Amino acid sequence: MAREQLEVLSALDAAKTQWYHFTAIVIAGMGFFTDAYDLFCISLVTKLLGRVYYYRAGAPDPGSLPPNVAAAVNGVAFCGTLSGQLFFGWLGDRMGRKRVYGMTLMCMVLCSLASGLSFGSTPASVMATLCFFRFWLGFGIGGDYPLSATIMSEYANKKTRGAFIAAVFAMQGFGILTGGVVTLVVSAAFRAAFDAPAYQDGAVASTPPQADYVWRVILMFGAIPALLTYYWRMKMPETARYTALVAKNAKQAAADMSKVLQVDIADDSKDPAPSDGDRNSFGLFSGEFLRRHGLHLLGTATCWFLLDIAFYSQNLFQKDIFTAIHWIPKAKTMSALEEVHRIARAQTLIALCGTVPGYWFTVFLIDRIGRFWIQLCGFFFMAVFMLGLAFPYHHWTTPGNHVGFVVLYGLTFFFANFGPNSTTFIVPAEIFPARLRSTCHGISAAAGKLGAIVGSFGFLYLAQNQDVKLVDHGYKAGIGVRNSLFILAACNFLGMGFTFLAPESNGISLEELSGENDDETSATPAHARTVPV
Fold first, then answer.
1. What is the rounded CA–CA span in Å between residue 171 and residue 476?
2. Which CA distances in Å does 387 have to 16, 260, 413?
3. Cα–Cα–Cα angle for 448, 101, 90, nearest 5°?
4. Tens digits of per-residue pLDDT, 290-321?
C-alpha cells in the first residue's frame, strides 16, 4: 500500500500553470541557451583559426588546424562537460539544487570570457590556452544539464511537466541559432571594414590581421546571456521535493512554494524521517537500486550515448559536409572572413528550418504523445533520412543537387530534436528517486557526452575522403562521409532498441515513477515497466 503523499508534493502535482513556471523556464533555459551557444560556436570558427594560426607559405589551400589540434579544439569542451555532469549531478543531490546552480553559471561566464582572451606567443600556446579554458567552460556547462532538468521537473505539475522540461531544453535551439546569427553579424562587420581578396588571389592578404578578433568576439559573446540570469538563479528557492524528501523538512518546503506559487499548501510536518529499515533509503550502488532502476539507467544512458554520436557529429562538422557537397565553395576561392560568413549562413539556415522547429514540436506534443513514441519515432526517422543521404550520396554531390541533400539533412535535425535529443534529457529527470535524481541524470548526460566525444573525434578522422590525394592536410584517408552516414544510421537503429528499457513517464507523478510512495513491503512500482501500454 502506498504511503500518503506529502501535501506540498500533491499540491505541486495538481497546481495550475502559473507565471512562476514560465519564469523558471526562462531562468533555467537561459543556461541552456548559453550551453548550446558555447558548445557549437567553436565549429563556426575552426576554419578561421586554421587560417590565422597555421598559414603555410606557398600552399595551394589556406591553412587548417592540424588533426590533433582540431580534435582538441572541437572535443575538449565535451571532456569538461562530461566531468561537470558527473560532479555537479552528484553535488546537486548532496548540497541541494539551488546552492550548486549559481556555481555552474559563474563558471560558464568566466570561462567564456577567458576563451576569447586566449593568449600565447606561438600558435601552439594560443590553442593550448584556448583548450584549457574551454575544458573548464565545458565543466560549468556540464553542471547545467542535471541541475536544470531536475529543478524544472521538481517545480512542474504532472500534467505539463514534459512540456516545461522540453521548453528549457528547447532554448538550446535558440542558442545554436544565435551562434550563427552572431557570427554572421560579426563577420559581415569585419568584412565591410577590412576588405580582403580570395586566397587564390592573395594568400597573405586573404586573412587580414583583424580576423584574429573575430573568433574572440564570437566566443566571448556567450558570457552575456548567462550573466544576465545569474541574479534570478540566486533568487530561486530550493525545490520542494528536495527540501521535503531529501532534507526532510516538509514545513520549509511548503513555505518556499507558497512564496512563488499561488497554491494553498497546508503545513505537513507529520511525515517522519524513514526508519533504518526503509527500503526507499537505498543508495546508487545498492542491489535495491539495481533491481528497481538498473535497466532504466542503462536505457537512459545508452540512448543518450548513441544519440549524441550522431547529433554532435552532424552539428560540429556541418561545414565539412557542406563543402563535400559543394554548397560552400572551396576555401581557396574565398577570403577568411567570407568563409566564416558562408559557414555561419549555412548552419543558421539548418538551425532555423530544422533544429529549432523540432524542439518546439516536442514542447507542444510531448504531453499528448508521450516520451516513448517521440523517442522511438525520432530515432527511426533519423536513421531513415541518414540512409536517404548515404545510399545516393554520389547523386547529392553532383552540381545542382545539393538542395535535396540540405532538405534531408535538415530533416535529420528536425527528428533529432522532435525525438531523442529532447527525450533523453527529459526522462532521466523524472524516473529516479529525488535523492538520486540529479546524480542519475548526470550519469545519463555524461554517457551522452561520451558519445559526443566519440562523434567529434571519430567523425573528424572517419569522414576524410577515401582518396589519399583529396584528404585535408595532415590527415590520413578515412572511410568518407557516405560510409560515416551508414555508421550514424546504425547508431540510431540501436537507439530504438534501448528505448524500450525506460518507462513511459507521461502524466505520472515523480514519486509514483520512482517508487518513493511505496511502503516497505511493496514490490517494484507498477510504473517501472519498460514498455508503455
1. 38
2. 44, 49, 14
3. 55
4. 999 999 999 999 999 999 998 888 765 666 66
